[in-house]
Amino acid sequence: METGYLKIQVYTGDKTLPIGNAQVTIKSSSGEIYYQTYTDLNGNTYYIPLFAPNRMYSMNQNYPYPAYSTYDVDVYADGFYTKRIHGVQIMDTQITILPVSLHPLQTELPVTIQELPEEEDIYIPPNSLLEPTENQQIGSNEIIALKPVIIPDYITVHLGLPTNAAARNVRVEFSDYIKNVASHEIYSTWPYNSLVANIHVIVTFAINRVYTEWYRSRGFNFDITNSTAYDQSYVDGGQIFQNISEIVDNIFNVYARRIGFKNPFFTQYCNGTTVTCNGLSQWGTVSLANQGLDPLQILQYYYPNDIELVASDNITGITESYPGYELSVGSEGGPVLRMQNFLNRIRVNFPLIPIIPNPNGYFGTETENAVRTFQNSFNLTADGVIGRGTWNKISFTYVGVIRLAELDSEGVRIGIGLNPPDVVLSYGSTGSNVVELQFIINYISPFYSTVPTVIKDSEFGPNTKNAVIEFQKTFGLVQDGVVGVSTWNMLYEVYRGIKQNAPIPSVPMIPPSGAPAYPGTPLSLGAIGPNVRLMESYLNTIRIVYTSIPFTTVNGVFDEGTRISVVAFQQEFLLTPDGIIGPITWNKIVEQFFLVTGQSSISLQYPGSPLQVGSMGSNVSLMQEFLTELRKPYPSLPVIAVDGIFGPQTEAAVIKFQNLFGLIPDGIIGPITWYTIISERNARV
To answer: Could you tell me if 320 and 338 are in contact, meaning their C-beta atoms sit under 8 angstroms apart?
Structure first.
């Protein structure tokens, strides 16, 4: 027997909330305990060595037995249902990653093994290479006019035959879906080019199902099944392999198509031994790779020879695409600053990631250390370099933690009470109670992959009804799509259990000393005045880094252009895109302005008291310097000396600046004038 390695990752909330100090027990199928350990604060165990058969067996397509050993894993954490995974596969020289998603308890009472929901026991089937499955894969290569190819952030998988209405649907991050399928359909020990070719085929097959809406156009509420007779072998709760994970992170957006066509090719395939087909043979790719064929040549061997591989950067869930080049020590600019800010926010949920104390757009050793720790936590190559895979994973993770935190604060705004509403909701219902229902469904969804998200539009339409039915199916209720007493009670019980046992970390924005406070009333279309001008100026500064935000005229008038910029900002930072600057949007704009302008520098913070005639010192010098720099875009500003003395000439320059920007022309640099000068200087110079 040889050695493989196992790493367990324990989390909840759609992988955004790691569970530290979870107890992990590794056993034989007969119950003999081999290891017992605990997760770190990022939810990870160390790499645990385990016996496995020699890898040479995994290269022989005629070997009739599994080329891996299997182990059982129990995971326990306070406040969560215990999960038991049976048949975790370990291969010689390979690192197996077992992602374990725990569900929060619904009450404070301990739950015995007998009381565990059935889904908390997971049985991993043998690798599909060993399974004799009748192949019935059918699909479409039809051209859908003008429809772009979009890489989804999530894919909904039906855990059974297409016609099995009792089977559950699960919502899975697309890249995780690909990793899971590849890890249960091929051997991770195969040659690199064989692995890449198979992953391209798996990716393309899945994208074709989404692109053609193969199942949804036929009235199903899912994108693909996990039946290998029809689709691909996804194992809910199954393991993935480290090397497959690393490949997928870099090519999950690369798919096959025929030259001259837009649509992803329908890449039919089978294992090539127990099942044969007209498409790719999984075992056949091994010999072709050993003959020296690259992944594209392998695909062209099985499919038309005009097959090409193309990448789509149209990826749902990523706010800005990979810049096209690696970021490493010495890199600088907007993309670096974006990643620094993302990592600092992610570390609130994953505390072992070291803080980047001065996010200034320069990639130094502190940024490298943060990147390396992130990569270790998310199964990426830990080289401290932000390539395409790391960029996408940081972006996805940032969106996830922000979305979860926004859900938490939205619950406060909606005002979820102690008791459910005393009302029955069904298809066609509208109003505030439907909004509450939709909010709770969306809050539960990250913790239960069987519950789909819905659009919070206050209308009980088909998507909301489907989500209610899936919730009822998950929790053993009558599946009628009607929210009566029992469904309301269970919704509240699950919601409270999450709030109690899986609290969502948030980062209340604490502005630097002297930062402009929310004026007390929201700014919206038609508002005028210095606060509007300040926000317009801040938004123009923020767009230096976040280029999706359009430029807006700084005139102190909240017009349609300002509203569009506010909506773009809100979409960028996952806020409710209503185009209104309320307290949450105001504080987020201020926060991002300070990050973009380097708020950790004391010199850019308002000193706490106004600067006026007679003031002296470095703060006066800073304002004089910025006003001097602003003479280039605004030549009407008078010439002043940068001497640190606030005299009549400086006062005249301040008054002129205030007149230009609609501020009170008092010649005094208070907080609004201070930050407007800084913002204009950074945006214009």
So the answer is: yes
Give start and end residues of each alpha helix (H) in 171-294: 174-185, 192-211, 242-251, 282-290
Q: What is the dihedral of CA 481, 486, 491, 494, to 10 degrees?
A: -130
Question: What's the rounded Cα separation, in Å, for the pair 140 and 472?
Answer: 34
Q: Classify the phi-psi angles of 213: left when phi > 0, otherwise alpha if psi is within -120 to 50, otherwise beta.
A: left
Global pTM reads 0.78
Note the pLDDT tens digit of each residue in 485-536: 999 999 999 999 999 999 888 665 555 555 788 888 899 999 998 899 899 9
Closest by CA to 684, choosing from 654, 663, 657, is 657
**Distance (Å, whole) CA 613 – CA 232:** 74
pLDDT given at position 399: 86
Pairing mode, strands 2-12 and 17-18 = antiparallel
| Angle at the Cα of 155 from the Cα atoms of 149 and 161, rounded to 5 degrees | 115
- Look up residue 112 and give its amino acid: T
The pLDDT tens digits for 321-349 are 888 899 999 998 888 988 998 998 899 89
Asked if 367 and 348 count as a contact pair (C-beta separation under 8 A), the reply is no
Q: Which of 245-259, 309-323, 328-342 has the highest mean pLDDT?
A: 245-259
Q: How far apart are the first and last CA of the chain?
A: 67
Per mean pLDDT, which range of 31-40, 316-325, 435-444, 594-603 is the poorest?
Answer: 594-603
- Spatial CB neighbours of 371, under 8 Å, sequence gap ≥ 6: 339, 343, 384, 385, 386, 390
Report the alpha-carbon distance of residue 245 to residue 562 in Å, rounded: 43
In tens, the pLDDT along 629-677 reads: 888 888 889 999 888 899 999 999 999 998 887 788 899 998 778 878 8
Q: Is 6 exposed, middle or buried (0-12, 13-18, 19+ CB in 10 A)?
A: buried
State the Cα–Cα distance between residues 253 and 203, nearest whole angstrom: 8
Question: What is the rounded distance in angstroms from the CA atom of residue 549 to the CA atom of residue 124?
Answer: 46
> CA quadruple 555, 557, 560, 563: dihedral positive or negative?
positive
Contact 356, 343 (CB under 8 A): yes
Q: Determine the pLDDT at residue 111.
A: 45
Q: What is the bridge-based pairing of β-strands 224-225 and 154-158?
A: parallel
Residue 110's pLDDT is: 45
Per the CB < 8 A criterion, the answer to whether 189 and 255 are in contact is no
DSSP 332: B
Which residue, among 301, 173, 328, has the nearest Cα to 248 in the 3D structure? Answer: 173
Q: List phi, psi (to 5°) of 556.
A: 75, 10
Angle separating helix axes 295-302 and 282-290, nearest 10 degrees: 130
**Residues facing residue 431 across a β-bridge:** none
DSSP string, 521-583: S-B-TT-BSHHHHHHHHHHHHHTTT-TTSPP---SSB--HHHHHHHHHHHHHTT---SS-B-H
Q: What is the mean pLDDT of the chain?
A: 89
What is the spatial distance between Cα 5 and Cα 52, in angstroms, rounded to a whole number? Answer: 9
DSSP assignment letter at 645: B
291 or 643: whose pLDDT is higher? 291
Q: What is the pLDDT of residue 543?
A: 81
Buried b / exposed e over 82-113, threshold 16 CB at 10 Å, is bbbbbbbbbbbebbbbbbbbbbbbbeeeeeee
Q: What integer pLDDT is reported at residue 58 of this predicted model?
A: 96
- Go through 516-554 and write b for each residue having 16 or more CB atoms within 10 A of its CB, e for each that does not: bebbeeebbeebeebbbbbbbbbbbbbbbbbeebeebeb
Q: How confident is the model at residue 145 (pLDDT cuts 50, 70, 90)?
A: low
